[in-house]
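Thread title: Can someone regenerate the structure for this chain?

I was given the following input by a collaborator and told the matching structure tokens would be attached. They weren't. Posting the sequence so someone can regenerate them.
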Amino acid sequence: MATVKIFKIERAQTFRADELGTGYSLQPWGDNTSIYSGTDDGGCEYILPDGFEIAMSDYDTVEIYDSAGNHCVLSNNKWGKPIIVTRDFCTILKKVTK
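Best answer:
Regenerated them for you:
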């Protein structure tokens, strides 16, 4: 079972209004700027479902890919849970329980 650390991001100030609010990322929140401000929760471990992998993109960022090598989007559902969005479906991620 593979796991991945995912950060819950709260964006308080952004350039575009549709960027405000909660999201999820494989990277922690960076430094605040005059345009962007926000925080992260320090990250939590989630189970990476079978058929997905974490790999470096062509832009030197860590991203999620499906078994066909297609880039997947990390987002949140209407209940605020992290999800992986593919071309065909969405998968809700489960937290690792200790």
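The chain is about 0% helix and 50% strand.
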